[in-house]
Amino acid sequence: MGFRPIANTRSATGIMTAKLAIWWLIASEIVIFGGLLASYLMHRLAHPEWGYYAEHTNVYAGSLNTFILLTSSLFAVLAHHAAQQGDGKKAARNLLITCGFGLGFLVVKSLEWSSEISHGYTITANTFWSFYYTAAGIHGAHVIIGMACMLWVANTARQGKELHRVENVGLYWHFVDLVWIFLFPLLYIAK
Amino acid sequence: MSEAVKIDGAHGHDDHHHHEPTFLEKWIFPLDHKFIGMQYLFTGMFMALFGGFFVYAFRMQLAFPGMSVPGYGTVSPAEYNMLITNHGSVMIFWVAMPVLIAAFGNFLIPLMIGADDMVFPKLNRLSFQLFLTSVLILMASWFVEGGGFGGAWTSYPPLSADSNYSMTPLGSSLWLTAVAVEFAAFLVGGINFITTAMNSRAPGMKAQDVPMTVWMICLASILFMASVGPLIAGAIMLFFDQMVGTGFFDPRRGGDPILWQHLFWFFGHPEVYVVLLPACGFVADVITVFARKKLFGYQTILYTAIGTGSLSFFVWAHHQFIAGIDPRMANIFTVTTVLISIPIAEMMFLFIATLYGGSIRFTVPMLWALAFIAEFLIGGVTGIYLGASGMDIYFHDTYFVIAHFHYTFFPIAFIGTFTALTFWFPKMFGRMMNETLGKVHFWGTVIPLNTIFIPLFFLGAAGQHRRIYNYNHFPDLSTPDLQNLRIMATMSLLVLLAFQAVFLFNFFYSMIAGEKASANPWKSNTLEWTTSSPPPHGNWHPDDMPKVYRGPYEYSVPGREDDYWPQNEPA
Amino acid sequence: MAEHAEAQDGHDDHGHDEHHDVSFYYKTYAVLLVLLVVSILGPEVGEATGLKIITLITAFGIAVVKAGIVIRNFMHLHTEKTFVHYFLITSLAFMALFFFAVAPDVMKHEGTRWENKAAKAWIQKVEAEYAAGGGDHHGADAAGDHGEKTEGDAHGEAAEHH
Question: What is the pTM of this model?
Answer without folding.
Answer: 0.91
